[in-house]
Design goal:
Eight copies of one chain form a homooctamer.
Chain A: H1 3-14, H2 20-46, E1 52-55, H3 61-70, E2 78-81, H4 85-94, E3 99-101, E4 106-109, E5 121-125, H5 131-143, E6 148-151, H6 159-163, H7 166-171, E7 174-179, H8 185-192, E8 197-201, H9 213-220, E9 227-229, H10 235-246
Parallel strand pairs in A: 1-2, 5-6, 5-7, 7-8, 8-9
Antiparallel strand pairs in A: 2-4, 3-4
Chain lengths: 250, 250, 250, 250, 250, 250, 250, 250
């Protein structure tokens, strides 16, 4: 039941076409269900310009195709994350304009939003094997309306590489810092930066890195304030949150 | 070596008072050390208006007194966190204007910053026993220049309490959501809100909550994007990060 | 806004005292907030005969006193769980009829409900040190309207003790089985019983029982179907759930 | 030794065909062994109408075929769980009436029991990838004599979807709530429902969900009473327990 | 119902004082319950010469006193383990002949059994802080009828100490090897000995020994066959099992 | 240097063919190295009748072939454990008399030892999927000189099956009890038996059994004394230890 | 900006071609960035004679080829670690002099450094399956300028093998001790040796060795001082650290 | 049996005072036992100049006093670690020259060794609460013959502090780097230094630092080679190992 229907109901009451008792009964059933759908719209409204996202892992090609086909072509870009080349092909059958970002494992359907902040989102990685997660964050942030600066392979074992590029850190509106193994990079960046740092642990590593637990704990225990952590390998979540932060006050 | 000294050295070179070789040798030793101190100032500059913070747990009363006494009285407020009543007394001996927030376990020295954003920082807790952590976040955010709205005891076992106060969520510039036990609240708030959610797991709980591990994992695995996590019981870190986000673009 | 108020609003619309636009505007704001309170009542209605419960651990004596004083004396019994003797004294100041069950660590305020099922709730423990958790479950179930049969210290290391009392298992409408250390008892009872088994791991134990993790895992891995697990030491939860099951179909 | 044989022995004693000493000796050896078998029958009796179940994972096709062939065709339906299509084919060779439920990974041999309760078992999932576990629970409950209502993909990140379907929750005799990742759904449903909630964590997820540990801990720590937990991915166990609860008092 | 009663029942049948139907009915109810008690006796019989044991931790002084007073003074020695000096005093009030072994934290009531094997039980510890656990094992083994040889503080960091006393290892009928920290001693002893090695991890240690988990894992992973592990700090269990092994074939 | 050589050296000293200084020098170098080999022999002597064992997992076919070929054909049987059919074929090329036990994954080279104890080793499993581990234990025990009685699929969910076969437990000289999932069987058997119980957790299971951690913890926490635990899936270790125990006093 | 450029700038200042202000401005920007590169050179200088290392796992063949091609052929040997045979082939296309060490999984490009210490690096393993990790350490140490002595398969279950070769331990300048499963070897070697012991846990094992956690904990808890631990399976790290220690004071 | 006694035995053989058989018998028993003691001496010899150490935690005052009194006053300094003020007093009763280092919790008995290397041992901490562990390492290293340079509170959240003191890192012969919480400091120092880095995790911290597990994992996963880890809080072990490394080649 939408606003239109509520209005009609009220007019029926005013016109005597509906009794007060009937109206009360209808309205009692309304709240959660219909407001539920109402809120959905409100939310979509609030988030205008943001991307829809589909997590592809664990969905069949058929299911993904169906979801893409059912989405309205309303100008809001769609991100299909964790997408294999096969997923990309299937999506391109339905939406030939879809673009596949292979390293990021993302298919983008529709036109990315225009950058809304003068500050870029800076994305740093400790190693080269963290790049797929970084690209997932980067493509997400770009599609949602941010300029992105990439600073890859600046891990703490060679701290001079990071220190040689402090400008990038200082320019950024928000930082995404990605690391596996010892996960120490966000702590150092947090100590150097004046803006929020989103730390992303990666499952890259061997030995006692335990598929991301070691860098996750390191990041949670960061001695620098201003550092928050998202799930292991969650590049999409980092890019999404970075957008929310970077668009603040706009 | 500061800028003044570099200038003097260069003039000595120009004047022939110093050879190029001598100057090269001096400059080779310079970078990290002196720039180190230089950067320190820059940072303080960048963060002007932010609070200094002293983590009191594990420090002796004597040490805390010494640190407080040594801080410049430059208008920047100082937060002494995890402070017992004894710590508060000792600080008040040195700085009689210090104010003790007992539930938050924080001593504030100096005048809190003026709110700089029209949006409040909203702080939600699942239960009443999460309130000390919430107050640590609240006092931190207030001292660093934010208005704070508190919405306590709105845990998911009685979801109607949360739904009855959606306005608070919608007004906020950033949300801090604090929960122990099942840690489910940030997921729901993340699904309702359009601004960043900082999730804080608390060590409150019993049985298999394992001093905060259970809600920590819940929060990291939140199905709602836009949720980031800080360390268990880390109210200060949440308040600090919330400030960085809430002051973005200002 | 309750039903009465909705009715008045509708009549105002019918009478022309309120415009449709005004009414729509009022109704749009209503749903979550007021329905929130409405649902609360509905729930209380549905659960009539059930107990209110206050978890005392981590609350101050002052807080507990305040909560008890604020509760309506409407015949619904109140359980104050994890209550120390001091808590009991404080409650008895406000409600002199309160009864303290020391082993169960529960204060009962008000009159327990009458048993509603012909089947008792049977509560078994593996050892004697599991008895406090068992009594928490037992008092909870009794107050909420069940007869309780206790069968304590029938652990698997002396299986003959259990087998000597099969009648109790067969009579019960639902079983609560409590064990620490190896946590094996629910598996065996689950294999013998035809009714649901609620397994409660306890933190009783030493060595590699890890404060209840060992029996918790044992119970989750029970090879007998019909066994569900609640949190470590959660006697109240077990008693509550047992009541819901035992009152089914009544 | 069955009742018949005991009777014969006693008559032999009465007739003097057997001495008291001989009879004592025979009876001393009897109890556990023969009563063992006796109990087996009793149990089967008690559970009449319930299904037999075979867990197929880790059994060879040959073994499964043998077990199915050996089962009496006595009207009690048989559930072969975790069955691959190959398992289904093998079973259908022996019992051509067997039906394969592919998503549930269950083969049902024989006729499902008639629904015995007016209340349905309601099964909710947080996401679409939880559906295989949900279907395992659903088919189990249906075969054991329940109507099932499915409410899939109503996770907490979009709480309006759940709130839009409260009727299903209110109609149910018992609820099975299935979730991976943050595992928060059972807490919310537990707060809304007046009947028992069986929570099933799933191994669906990535990052720090650790193959189901994260939602398992969330569910064990649920702040809502009336929630019990079964093993990770254990749809069969949930369906079985739901039946025991839903048939209570019938 | 004991053998005597079965005999009487059978004679009543033979005499016609009881019908066959009545006897069947009585016997049907008998097995588990009464055989339960019967088995208890049988077991006691089988274990004649073994000690009764009471685990004192978590029992009140009153409870312990009651249990001791209720035990028959039948020559079987009683071990009260994890006993504080207060426990010892209380026991000595009831049984003045009780002896308190302070380091072992055991009170022995009654006369220890005579050694039954020519081979001693050899007990080795890695460090001096493992001695309380070792003494618990030693006193248990002595009371249950074994000679004990102690070889303490022969940890692997000074392997020469162990190698200097190989005779003890070679003489023993069974070995109990106790270690905290790295828990490496049982592996080496297992490689040198031809008899079973019972490994006992202790919670002694600091850093990453995690209250006994580190040595527990070491011992479970021992590369030497013939090593079995009991619970952390479980000296009693080790002494009991050592007796069972040392008395084999006697 | 063997005893013969020491004797020759001493005679050379006595005959003046070697100086004391030369002999001292030779003897100084001797101890560890040569006694090393001497001990090896001594050990082999002590363990005469025991089997050699080769753990095949992680070794190449070439390596296994080489080891088998290098072993002396001295009547001592050799066990190649964790052997695939390919391993069996390779061994049979070198030793055509080798026998492959497929379920046990063991190749036996040479003639098993004669049973040396009148008591069998009884091997119990909770489920059918524990059988490979049980067979590894059984073949090991048989080859090392024991009669073995198998009692499979007697898990605690159907306790009557176990109680129906108490004779096996009572006849045994030592018990090996194997279980995955809840791992509860050894606790019950330990309560019924008067001889040592070797508990073997298996990695069989799903959900929260965590590849054997759950049953491992259950077994370590067994409330029945006389239970010791070996590594997860370590059938060979259990069979070896059972032999050491069963041959005690012979 | 390198030293040459600084010199030119200073000469421009001296010659009046550049103003002091301009020079200050240039120098202000210099430190981190350019000194960054400067330090890199310095470091390379300090480490002259050390090897460059490329971790191949997780890099594409194309990436590895590119890195190798880009490295200067300056006499410093290059180690490509965790290299498959395919990686070796690709490297040999670019650098035909590359040598593949298959067991060590290392490709060495360029000429190994000459041994610089009279003491060898001794590398011990507990088992044969630890050899790949040992060879990674051995080849690393050899290429970086050490003689290596190998002592494999001297685990604690047969301590005589280790004691038979004490000379190797005494000759060494530093020891690398590698073990899986119980990880006990470094403790014993640490007790015998007077030089540093680098302990390397391996993921070799089964059951409760948990992919290296068990030996890792054992080694961290080593009772012998002078033992330090590197990551699980980290042969390269051990070889590198051993070189740093063995070249100390040279 | 020492060399002297072997010589006498051989002369007895030569003189005919002892038969060859008698000598063989005596020599057979000798190796392990007496070589054991012999090796002890050898070791003491090799380690001359090193300190004896007594770990006081878990020892009674009486025991510590006894050990100190029994030690020879041979110029080798003695370290009593984890010593409370009470322990210090007791030791000073026996050895009035004993010096108590309160922060380090060490009592030093006897004269520290002279520094033997021109390079200092540099000890860095991330925070001020790591200082007790650092001082334990520092006093150990000083007593064992090293100059120590302390660089405290240079954690990664303020990287400029570390970079401002690079000289200390470059001068050192070996580095001990101590950190709790995120444990990131050793990774950065390892990237800057050319000498071995001994990383010490501390149990200082809160939230998800888990009493040192978080920094321990960080350090094990350090991306910089040349970093090895000792146990949590193990300052003594770090100081001991640093000495072994710093004295290499001297």
């Amino acid at each position: 039941m939408n606003e239109e229907q509520i209005r009609e109901l009220l007019e029926a009451v005013r016109n005597g076409e509906s009794s007060v008792a009937e109206a009360v009964s209808l309205l009692r059933k309304l709240p959660f269900k219909d407001i539920g759908f109402a809120r959905l719209d409100t939310h979509r409204q609030l988030r205008r310009g943001f991307a829809e996202a589909i997590y592809c892992e664990g969905k069949t090609l058929e299911q993904i195709k169906g979801i893409i086909a059912a989405l309205p072509d309303d100008g809001v870009p769609v991100l299909a994350t964790r997408a294999t080349p096969e997923v990309a092909q299937v999506i391109q059958q339905v939406r030939p304009d879809a673009v596949y970002h292979e390293t990021a494992r993302i298919v983008v359907v529709g036109k990315p939003a225009e950058p809304r902040s003068e500050h870029p989102v800076a994305i740093l990685t400790a190693g080269t094997s963290d790049i797929p997660v970084a690209e997932e964050a980067a493509v997400t942030a770009e599609v949602m309306g941010n300029r992105v600066e990439r600073l890859y392979d600046v891990g703490v074992a060679g701290i001079h590489r990071l220190l040689g590029d402090l400008d990038t850190i200082e320019r950024a509106g928000v930082l995404i810092v990605i690391a596996g193994m010892d996960g120490a990079l966000p702590s150092i960046v947090g100590g150097l930066a004046a803006v929020p740092v989103i730390a992303v642990p990666t499952s890259v590593g061997y030995g006692a890195s335990f598929a991301g637990i070691a860098p996750l704990l390191t990041m949670l225990n960061s001695c620098a304030p201003g550092v928050a952590v998202v799930n292991i390998d969650n590049g999409f979540g980092a890019g999404y949150l970075a957008t929310q932060i970077n668009h603040r006050g706009l």
